[in-house]
Task: structure prediction
Amino acid sequence: MRLRNVPKAREVMVTNEYVFTEPNNMCNTWFEVFGNHNPIHIEIGMGKGKFISTLAHTNPNINYVGIEKYSSVLLRAVEKQNELQLPNLRFIRMDAENICEVFGKYEVNRIYLNFSDPWPKDRHAKRRLTSKQYFDRYNKILKPDGKVEFKTDNISLFDFSIEQVKEAGWRLEAQTRDLHNNAVLLEGNVMTEYEERFSLQGNPICKLIAVR
Ligand code: SAM
Result:
């Protein structure tokens, strides 16, 4: 994602009730944050937040946490949430490599990864959000019957991700290389910003669901 230096983005994050700016700023439990024990679904690398905000609006009995590394990107989602004030939606500005610092063992019911950065160089493979190293992190925070759902238009990243699912000892519950022509997996699909852009360009969208 191209980054712009958005003035005041960091300041807005620090003072906003819906955003945690760093893992070490979080002293509450998720029960204290949301005031209920509803399931927790997270999106890692949420960008401007269209996907997670839509889900939070549609599913008030699920708590959603969006994770994004950059304030300048997250700002758009925060502005929208300031208008909508959805009680079941929060954001954390952080690098997902520290995800186990903000969720306890089996605290998360579902993890969404949408159009994750491909990190094309081999030496950066472990930074990909679908690498074995990341699945090992997800293994700690995701409930035993939880799912990881991943969408991308990047074929190389999709091939890599399928290998890594198996390498990490997980299995594929479902997969498609043409989501928008797969009636079963398309049901209930919420388009992300990148999904809209790439499907308009004619790129097929790949999706996998990984479970243990
Ligand atoms: N998910 C959105 C979508 O589908 O429209 C945005 C996709 S964009 C290509 C990837 C996003 O993931 C960027 O906003 C980037 O800053 C974020 N990101 C990449 N690596 C991350 C990490 N390790 N931790 C948190 N966010 C990350």
